[in-house]
Amino acid sequence: MLSHLHLSWQERSTRRDAVLVALLALLWVAAYSNLQRLADWLTYTLLGLDPASHFGAALNFFVYDVPKILLLLSGMVFLITLLRTFITPEQTRRLLGGRREGVGNVLAALVGVITPFCSCSAVPLFIGFVESGIPLGVTLSFLIAAPMVNEVALVMLFGMFGARIAALYLISGLVIAIVAGVIIGRLHLEGEVEPFVYQVKAKKAGQIDAKLTWSDRFEEAFNKTREIVGKVWLFVVIGIAIGAFLHGFVPEDALVNVMGTNAWWSIPIAVLIGVPLYSNAAGIMPVVSVLLDKGAALGTVLAFMMSVIALSLPEMIILRRVLRPRLIAVYIGVVALGIMLTGYLFNLVV
């Protein structure tokens, strides 16, 4: 009897949570669909600013993009987290372990696309993969793809520029991750991994319980969304503020001179600028949007964005806990070269 009552309560709780998620999804769609109208009303009607003025254009850009990117970010984090409640770390390791070169790199890069690369996940994942016998090159394909093909950046590229640009970003990032992993794997740099990594035993703690209810999965997704958005919202606002300033006040010629199509040196410069710059996908996307609006070359801008996301200095500092300087240098060099080649390719064919 008690078991029956418990099951009935659990079913009611699940239905209630599902209805709540559906209502929030409808509110999300309604809000996202009306952002531009709201931004125009606030900027040009309520405040009475001139659309042709520098300040009016900059403020309209800011008022529109802040909620737009925060909505995209929260929606994507929720969906990805919900998906991950069905996939345990052990399942990931079993998928990648025992694969021959090439196949393992492709699978690792694909897994990396839906996996966030952050200070809390980079080191434990690396240790778990290496300890489980996954080859170093395959593991690095995962580590390269995870930040480079960022799901937030992919969704926002699709929203801002359409499916073609988003697909080019996805394909190029995967190719870089796969090729770089194969190259690094053939250099046999296993000795450049800190010895303690090979001595760590895989831990069973923290794995996702396959028997989670839908209510548990919704709760996990809500908690992770609140946690991640809470950590990055300030970077989003700062990035959009920079983008708004560029949009409204920076002359087009100043940007084209650095990232213009005809400047062969613009791609290496863009990558060099991006490597020490700290940001995340949500924070850098407004800057990307403005650079393209100002006439910068697509390949150059994407090279800049990839270097910011995939080769940021804080991530390299985190990786230093498990990789020695020589391997980190090889990692940066191979990925940076791949990014630059991708930039030149995009500028040539787009």
Order of helices and strands: HHHHHHHHHHHHHHHHH
Helix content: over 70%
**Distance, first to last CA:** 67 Å
Number of strands: 0
Radius of gyration over alpha carbons? 22 Å
Shape: flat
Low-pLDDT sequence parts:
201-209
Whole-number average pLDDT? 76
Secondary-structure-based class equals: mainly alpha
Strand content: under 5%
Our count of helices gives: 17
Describe the main β-sheet briefly.
Answer: none
Describe the structure.
By secondary structure, this protein is mainly α. It has a domain at about 85-210 and about 250-350. The protein is built from 17 helices and no strands. Helix 13 packs parallel to helix 15. It is flat.
List the helices and strands and how they pair.
Layout: H1 2-33, H2 35-46, H3 54-84, H4 89-96, H5 103-113, H6 122-131, H7 136-148, H8 151-161, H9 163-186, H10 196-199, H11 214-249, H12 252-259, H13 266-274, H14 281-293, H15 298-310, H16 313-319, H17 325-349
